[in-house]
Amino acid sequence: MPALLDDGSRPDAYRHGDLELDRVYLGDEQVWPPLPLVPMGMDFTGTASVSSGQTVDVTGFVPRPGFPDTVIDAGTALVIGGPGTIRVHAGASPANAYLRWRVMHYTAGAWVEQVNVSNGVTGESSDFAVDTGDLLKMTISSTFSTRSISSAYVYFDVISSG
After folding, report:
1. Burial class (CB in 10 A: 0-12, 13-18, 19+), 3
2. pLDDT value, residue 162
3. Among 20, 27, 75, 138, which lies 20 to 30 A Cα-Cα from 42?
4. pTM greater than 0.85 (yes/no)
């Protein structure tokens, strides 16, 4: 994102001499103005397994039908396209005793748990803020023996954009 002004706000215009710019790019990425936040979703079908005491990322996600603007990084994480507030919906099946799945949010250099479900099929987050380039991924863990899932999904609703 572009530098902040002295008061901490983001500029609403950029100038190059007398020329007012309508877009600013860093390489191929448009960094100003921020792109609008759009709903995204991803589905997983296959087998994801985890051994006792381990946590693994679920990989092999593909865009979920009905979410044409979805961007997925390496089959693992949704890439947030703009700033705003979202609510995540997710699920994994079959439900297994001792299996826990989570939806993790990468923001400001750290992973933050947003959804945490033990022995359940669906979950939903509270509303939370996201920014351009943030990530959402699903992890699974087991507390007793090897456990597996055969399907999963993660999608989000946009509560507010900008």
Report:
1. exposed
2. 79
3. 27
4. no
